[in-house]
Amino acid sequence: MKILALDLGKFNTMCCFFDTKTRKHSFLNATTDRNYLSTVFKKHKIDLVVMEACGPSGWINDLAESLGLQTFVCSTNEEAWKWSNVKRKTDKDDALKLARMATMSELKPVHMPSETHREFRSLVKYRKTLDWRINKIKCTIRAWFVNHGISIDRGDKAWHTGRALINSYRKPLTECSAKELWKGELDLELTQLDSLSTQLDGVVKKLEAIGKADPRIVRLRTIPGVGPRTAEILVACIDDSHRFENGRQVSAYFGLVPRQFQSGETDRNGRITKRGNPLARTILVECAWASLRYNPWSKGVYDRICGKQKTRKKKAGVALARKIAVIAWAMLRDEKDWDPVTMIRTTKSFGGTLPLDEETFRTMPPKENSDQRKSRLRREAREAEELTQRCAAKASPTTKSASKSKSKPTQVGKSTKQQSAKSQAKLQAKSITTPRSPIGSKSKQATTKTAKPRRARKPVSAA
């Protein structure tokens, strides 16, 4: 068996051709280029291509598979990649060690998603990058106003209703004096902020369009408290749900399991390992805190783990995040939506108690989150507008007949208006002639008594 081990680099790649029978090897320094590597794959007889998981391993793996070669992408986080007791480390040594470890089957493979899924994953990550840049610019602008003793609105009000106050201090840098240079910097930062906000809106619209067409994202959004951003990141990280055998592997993949130290009779657990995607782990914890408001099952699990102890709140939140990740993986594996009956069964299996009685919990519809509420309100407003347009279209041919039938009552209405105008003029004349007392109590009573019989004549004239 002939193995090609690749020690990938940004510009150059060290190729090691290793024969498992003769244990002989040879090296080739190749350029990390698509055309160059394709000629290397075609020129030599190769049974297996081994490479480490890194940035260019995606397109190199696709290139080798398109030529009919078997590939193996290994993880670099294992014990085989520790170089603590090695006196020399070079690219040739790395490639040779990679080939020998593959021969002994000591390497652990890494799941390689398709090209389409890799692009979707990069777009999800890029949205968070834009959000981080926007927050950084906002913090910089707030720091300038604080350093100059100018108070602006707190929170989101400063960037919506309070944006006019911030814009009043901006000034082109070429027109700023020596004491107003910060206003020129503010103008540059606000220009970047507007551009990044527009770009973020475009990325979010594209992600929403992808989420509507992907049934996996639609299925995960049925969980109360899980919004579109959490569903997108979970689908981007899990990808193929059948590559995990059980929920423990899913928990370890997201780094939400405790570290373990065992030696003899000592066996203690530490903090979580924090392995895997940090963005997915962060948003899972945020989703766990949000689900306490929308999901009664999450509230019950949180109360059971927390036990009304202040020191266990954060631990309960992380544990709830791990359960949400496992539930999302099980829903993708079984292709089933959120079902309260299933949650009742699983809660009873480990002796837990529901926050509500079983019948109420079974018949209670899931609460909608903020994104679902906004979409529902937009849909209801659209339907109401369409209904008014239909009613107006149906009532348009009957306007002529209605105008003819209302011609006579309009004349009566005019006579009543004239009579009421005359009576009001008389009342005003009397109020002018009568003297006003300093207290005003007797005059008010007199005017109210004289006004009562005149008000009673209005329905008589209209009849």
What does this structure look like?
The protein has helices at residues 34-43, 57-66, 91-103, 115-147, 163-167, 181-213, 215-220, 228-238, 247-253, 278-294, 296-306, 313-334, 340-349, 358-363, 370-395, 399-405, 407-433, 441-455, 458-462; strands spanning 2-7, 12-19, 25-31, 48-52, 70-74, 258-263, 266-272. Helices cover 59% and strands 10% of the residues. The N and C termini lie far apart (109 Å). The protein is built from 19 helices and 7 strands. It has 3 domains: 2-103, YqgF/RNase H-like domain (Nucleotidyltransferase, domain 5, 2-Layer Sandwich), CATH 3.30.420; 116-213, no CATH class; 221-370, no CATH class. The protein is globular. Helix 4 packs across helix 8. The protein has 463 residues and is of the alpha/beta class. A 5-stranded mixed beta sheet has the order 3-2-1-4-5, with helices on both faces. Strands 6-7 form a two-stranded antiparallel ribbon.
Low-pLDDT runs: 406-417, 430-452, 458-463
Tell me the span between the first and last alpha carbons. 109 Å
Strand order of the main beta sheet, please? 3-2-1-4-5
Biggest sheet descriptor: 5 strands, mixed
- Fraction of residues in β-strands: 5-15%
The whole-angstrom Rg is 37 Å
Which structural class should the secondary elements be placed in?
alpha/beta
Overall geometry comes to globular
Give the helix level as a range of percent: 55-70%
Order of helices and strands: EEEHEHEHHHHHHHEEHHHHHHHHHH
